Amino acid sequence: MYLGVSTQESIIEIEKEIPAPKTQITDFRKSCLPFYIEAIKQITQRFIFSDPLYDIIELVTDPQKAQSFETKDLTFVVNRFPYLRNDLDLEELNKEWKMHALLDFTHLNLSPNLEILDYWNNVFRLKKSSGEPQFPCLKKVIIMLLLVLPFSNASVERVFSQLKLIKSDHRNRLATETISALMATKANIPNAMTFEPTKLMLKTRIKYKKDGESEEGTN
């Protein structure tokens, strides 16, 4: 059971100092179990693990799996993201996927141990004899779709953290428009203390349109 670096170090120190603290340590670990059990329950309620997206992610982020050609075609990727049909020729995509499996990976220095981006960038640099890219459809699917999917809510959590710093207990009556403006300012101006607004900015009056209000008179 992973309890964190600091906690594990503390347990090791206790084991060194106390001859037989095994019972207490075991009881401590057992008391942590309900937290992990509840965490797993919450995760399984929020995520659909039968979603083929997870297989797609594994295929893209593991070059060794991509090279093995265990997945014979990428039709399931297009089925998962139907809008790709508007920009891709499915037959060409599957053709390129098979061509990728037939590459001489050793000769081309395409080790499966390369970092994900390094690996796929090397693949997408390959050209046909005509000078055209060898894998245009595959590049669109992997680089422009799968590797830019946000697999974390960290960016959203950062926004909430900023919100809590701006709308504190002492500033709990700030209007929504004011909060939005302050957050936009913080995000786009690295150092507000040294920022010098232009004369035009100082003269400009910004009026937020409320529900049902006309835009006339807004500057």
Automatic annotation (TrEMBL):
Q: Name one Pfam family in it.
A: Dimer_Tnp_hAT
What name has this protein been given in UniProt?
HAT C-terminal dimerisation domain-containing protein
Checking InterPro entries in the record gives:
HATC_C_dom, RNaseH-like_sf
Species assigned in the record: Diatraea saccharalis
Recorded superkingdom: Eukaryota
GO MF terms on file? protein dimerization activity
HAT C-terminal dimerisation domain boundaries: 103-188
